[in-house]
Design a protein that fits this description.
By secondary structure, this protein is mostly helical. The chain has ten helices and no strands. It has one domain: Tetracycline Repressor, domain 2, CATH 1.10.357.10. Helix 4 runs parallel beside helix 7.
Length: 198
């Protein structure tokens, strides 16, 4: 029952936002009483926290499945972006922004865990890209890893990128192209051009 509540809550939070969805909404959608939900999660905040880490786990599983597929390093980054966008429902309800605004402690925990989880993936992608001549040999891997992570995280900052002006999916595409162009070799740029044509 707890997993069922978690799955449904995570889905609703991603679809409509952490602030917008109430415990009544979740109970109604599941066809159960609020009392049943509260027997597993004593407050909405606890449910938000559990749902957020549940979503993070799903994101990490998605990334691992893509890493196992052995794409070239540039194709890999675009595939990860595409699949995570689908998983997060293109962030149309701005869940990251709402989490940061209304649940800052949870956001901070998730942000730290997320960096721990994806840091090795980014580093590995950069190293492989250098070895296979997709990325330049002179890049600072640690710095690029941090720039890429922080840049990605800031795309959901609505003060910087108002949602009525910047569509999140388009922003992510532009940012990823910007990232690859900054570090790519000629071989990498040719690969990027082919991906963008598709």
């Amino acid at each position: 029952m707890k997993d069922k509540i978690l799955h449904k809550a995570a889905d609703l939070f991603l679809s409509f936002g952490f602030k917008s969805i109430t415990m009544d909404d979740i109970a109604a959608d599941l066809g159960m009483s609020k009392k049943t939900i509260y027997s597993h999660f004593s407050t909405k905040k606890k449910l938000v926290e559990a749902s957020t880490f549940y979503i993070l786990e799903r994101v990490n599983e998605t990334i691992c499945s893509i890493l196992d597929a052995n794409y070239d390093p540039i194709e890999e980054t675009f595939t990860i972006k595409s699949m995570i966008n689908n998983l997060l429902k293109n962030e149309k309800s701005s869940p990251s922004y709402q989490l940061q605004k209304y649940y800052p402690k949870i956001y901070k925990q998730v942000h730290e865990k997320q960096f721990e989880a994806v840091q090795s993936c980014i580093v590995e992608n950069l190293k492989r890209g250098i070895t296979e001549d997709y990325y330049r040999k002179d890049i600072d891997i640690d710095l690029i890893t941090r720039l890429f992570f922080s840049g990605n995280m800031n795309l959901t900052n609505q003060e910087l990128f108002p949602i009525d002006v910047y569509e999140i999916s388009s922003l992510k595409n532009t940012f990823l192209e910007y990232h690859v162009r900054a570090i790519a070799t000629e071989k990498g740029l040719n690969t990027l051009k082919n991906i963008l044509k598709r």
